[in-house]
């Protein structure tokens, strides 16, 4: 089964300047268990597409299936399959993180006992135990990112979508997060990653697609991107600069 | 409807107002106590416009209603606006919560806050008034229908508002004037006859009158029509709010 199937996805915005195309007729399939990288400049349409997949944005035309569930018709099953770590923190900054993650488990219908066990496991995994009684705003940038990742994993989703998960954190914390992500991939999770750090995409992903002006302009395996010893960054720049 | 999911939304709402109890609970209690003291006791002892009913007993149901209205409206309107402006609403939009679970969760939270504040007001009033409800089923009906109605109105405004001050605008320019001319402090008979119609088209009048009847057995309107009007308005608003959530109005771009 494919973890994600996007067909003819089109998303337009209307603002004061008129209609803007954010995602332009995108077709994309991500296989179950794949570590998939989505690259592109700011404004290329990556975050908009992720927002369409996760239900934050509506889309104009097209269809999206997550683990075989249509995200509009069967939105509850589709959302059960997704864990999202968004680029911008969407956390109640005043709430203690232990309470926040418990509520999120509740949104996903987990029982109190399951929520307690899972939150404890994740806080231990991400070294967050010492902060569980702290509000989100009291955490450093790196621990905020860890909390958001833990929250995305709370309901043990099949597909993990990470939008710039290492933005703004130091090298040590970034490497620790890479290790967690590699472990999750080994456990069979499908991971969709967007990042501006190309070395991280090169290290982690099996397959990489590049978006530009709302379109997918390349969709290749890591081997194809790095053919002949090329760095992913060089291939990426050649692709985006040639447009 | 999944009870775990629904209770998570309601719990989040309760946690939110319990984090700031001075603003959400203590301040309205002080305000209500001052109303009871000034209008009910200091001025009330000099007002005798109804036979066999003390002015404080006449005024108190309206003061209770004010706290229900403001408590319920403020909770849902400010909470939804906060979740929209901080984008924390996306925590819910990306989860399998149904739209009715989200809306009901907000309503339960708003009603809980209104009931906590009203219970406190009631406790203060017991000292000064004959505050025992005369008709308990009617009393429960009015308390619940008014809380739910204003929770829904708060959700509508919380969805519509682009700025924080727009939330206060409805409270200041619409709700407060309607409450003050809705028979909280005076009987309709105390007003000139040519403006009685103004009171009769004011929905707050039917809420105050209904809860007053349930508490002291005194009424100036057709209670049955009032009850139907309030229930009908709540049902229509509920359907409208669910529809707006479903189409993602001001929630999903």
From TrEMBL, chain A:
Pfam families: ABC_tran. The keyword ATP-binding applies. Keywords: ATP-binding, Nucleotide-binding, Transport. It comes from Candidatus Uhrbacteria bacterium CG_4_9_14_3_um_filter_41_35. Residues 4-238 form the ABC transporter domain. It comes from the Bacteria. GO terms for molecular function: ATP binding; ATP hydrolysis activity. Gene3D superfamilies: P-loop containing nucleotide triphosphate hydrolases. The keyword Zinc does not apply. PROSITE patterns: ABC_TRANSPORTER_2. This is ABC transporter ATP-binding protein.
UniProtKB/TrEMBL annotation, chain B:
It holds the Pfam family ABC2_membrane. InterPro entries: ABC-2_transport_permease, ABC2_TM, ABC2_TM_bact-type, ABC_2_transport. Keywords: Cell membrane, Membrane, Transmembrane, Transmembrane helix, Transport. It is a multi-pass membrane protein. It comes from the Bacteria. Signal peptide: none annotated. The chain crosses the membrane at residues 20-43, 63-82, 103-127, 139-160, 167-188, 223-245. GO terms for molecular function: ABC-type transporter activity. It is found in: Cell membrane; Membrane. GO terms for cellular component: ATP-binding cassette (ABC) transporter complex. Residues 19-248 form the ABC transmembrane type-2 domain. The keyword Magnesium does not apply. Belongs to the ABC-2 integral membrane protein family. This is Transport permease protein. It comes from Candidatus Uhrbacteria bacterium CG_4_9_14_3_um_filter_41_35.
């Amino acid at each position: 089964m494919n973890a994600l199937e996007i067909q003819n996805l089109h998303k337009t915005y209307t603002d004061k300047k008129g209609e803007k195309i954010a995602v332009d007729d995108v077709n994309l399939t991500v296989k179950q268990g794949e570590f998939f990288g989505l690259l592109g400049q700011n404004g290329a349409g990556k975050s908009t597409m992720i927002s369409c997949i996760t239900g934050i944005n509506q889309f104009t035309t097209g269809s999206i299936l997550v683990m075989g569930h249509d995200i509009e018709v069967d939105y509850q099953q589709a959302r059960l399959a997704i864990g999202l770590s968004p680029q911008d923190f969407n956390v109640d900054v005043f709430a203690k993180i232990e309470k926040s993650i418990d509520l999120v488990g509740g949104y996903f219908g987990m029982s109190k006992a399951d929520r307690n066990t899972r939150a404890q496991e994740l806080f231990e995994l991400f070294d967050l135990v010492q902060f569980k009684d702290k509000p989100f705003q009291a955490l450093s940038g790196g621990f905020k990112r860890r909390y958001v990742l833990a929250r995305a994993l709370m309901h043990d989703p099949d597909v993990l979508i990470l939008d710039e998960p290492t933005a703004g954190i130091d090298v040590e914390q970034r490497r620790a997060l890479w290790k967690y992500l590699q472990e999750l991939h080994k456990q069979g999770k499908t991971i969709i990653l967007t990042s501006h750090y190309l070395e991280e995409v090169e290290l982690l992903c099996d397959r990489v697609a590049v978006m530009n002006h709302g379109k997918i302009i390349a969709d290749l395996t890591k081997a194809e991107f790095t053919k002949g010893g090329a760095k992913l960054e060089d291939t990426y720049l050649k692709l985006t600069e040639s447009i | 409807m999944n009870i775990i999911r629904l209770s998570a939304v309601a719990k989040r709402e309760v946690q939110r107002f319990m984090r700031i109890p001075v603003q959400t609970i203590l301040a309205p209690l002080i305000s209500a106590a001052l109303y009871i003291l000034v209008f009910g006791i200091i001025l009330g002892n000099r007002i005798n416009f109804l036979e066999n009913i003390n002015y404080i007993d006449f005024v108190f149901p309206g003061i209770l209603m004010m706290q229900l209205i403001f408590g319920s409206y403020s909770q849902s309107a400010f909470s939804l606006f906060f979740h929209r402006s901080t984008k924390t609403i996306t925590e819910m939009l990306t989860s399998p919560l149904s739209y009715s679970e989200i809306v009901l969760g907000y309503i339960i939270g708003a009603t809980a806050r209104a009931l906590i504040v009203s219970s406190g007001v009631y406790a203060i009033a017991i000292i000064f008034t004959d505050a025992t409800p005369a008709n308990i089923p009617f009393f429960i009906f009015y308390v619940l229908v008014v809380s739910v109605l204003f929770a829904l109105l708060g959700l509508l405004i919380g969805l519509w508002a682009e700025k924080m001050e727009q939330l206060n605008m409805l409270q200041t320019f619409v709700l407060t004037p309607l409450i003050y001319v809705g028979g909280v402090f005076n009987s309709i008979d105390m007003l000139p006859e040519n403006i009685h119609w103004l009171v009769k088209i004011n929905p707050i009048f039917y809420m105050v009158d209904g809860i007053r009847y349930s508490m002291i057995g005194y009424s100036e309107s057709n209670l049955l029509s009032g009850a139907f009007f309030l229930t009908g308005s709540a049902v229509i608003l509920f359907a409208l709010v669910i529809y707006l959530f479903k189409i993602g109005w001001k929630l999903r771009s």
